[in-house]
Amino acid sequence: PDLIDVIVPRGGRSLIERVMEDSRVPVLAHLEGVCSVYLHEAADVEMARHITLNAKMRRTGVCGAAENLLIDRAMAAAQLTGIVDDLAEAGCEVRGDEAARAIDARIHPATEEDWSTEYLEPIIAVKLVDGVDDAVDFINHHGSHHTDSIITGDAAAAETFLNRVDSAIVMHNASTQFADGGEFGMGAEIGISTGRLHARGPVGAEQLTTYKYMVRGDGQTRP
Fold it and tell me: Residue 33 and residue 6: Cα distance in Å, rounded?
């Protein structure tokens, strides 16, 4: 411990859990990337479809890949089928709740476990929600505090989402696959932390640094 300041484990959940349990020095890590994309009722349809496909299928095995797709009930009837078309054409299995399956029969039944699963493969779980508050509650309950995105043209809804979702990275009108230190201008990424201390989110060399306060006086005392 005297020679090591911090450990940044990279690998599977079992490895990271073991390191976090046994380490006697600080650990910067995330266990899983259960990321969600939320399509708000004020989302631009083409943008929503483009981002959804990219967030899930650009690279399915990275921690920033979307695993859940939340869709406002108000837009689902008109837009869900087109989104399923895109995903199915790309080879993605779509699972969903009963409300989603009632709209598109190609959607397989989702279990409660699906909402908290990091698939790391071409599978996504779809759930219909009733507005931004419902979406935020779902993400904070089922997500892994990694990366979540809202797609909307409503600035107020976006601010509510960005402020209330308890994740290291929150996005507005962008793919969750941007969850990377290099994309954030941090240079080579050392890791991503979902904890609150010391660093949170993408971690580069600069984010590992801390502070030392050097005070130079000439006899001052505090009254």
Answer: 21
Do residues 68 and 32 lie in contact, with contact meaning Cβ atoms separated by under 8 Å? no
Contact 99, 76 (CB under 8 A): yes
| Model pLDDT for residues 205-222, shown as the tens digit of each residue | 676 666 656 566 575 645
Cα 218 to the center of its chain, rounded Å: 51
Longest dimension (CA), the chain: 79
Q: Hey, where are the domains in the chain?
A: 35-178
Q: How far apart, in whole angstroms, are the C-alpha atoms of residue 55 and residue 49?
A: 10
Q: Which of 135, 168, 140 is nearest to 151 (CA)?
A: 135
CA-CA distance, 44 to 118, in Å (whole number)? 27
CB-based contact 106:88 (threshold 8 Å)? yes
Q: Peptide bond preceding 172: is omega within 30 degrees of 0, i.e. cis?
A: no
| The CATH number of the domain covering residues in 35-178 | 3.40.309.10
pLDDT digits (tens, 9 = 90+) for 41-90: 999 999 999 999 999 999 999 989 999 999 999 999 999 999 999 999 99
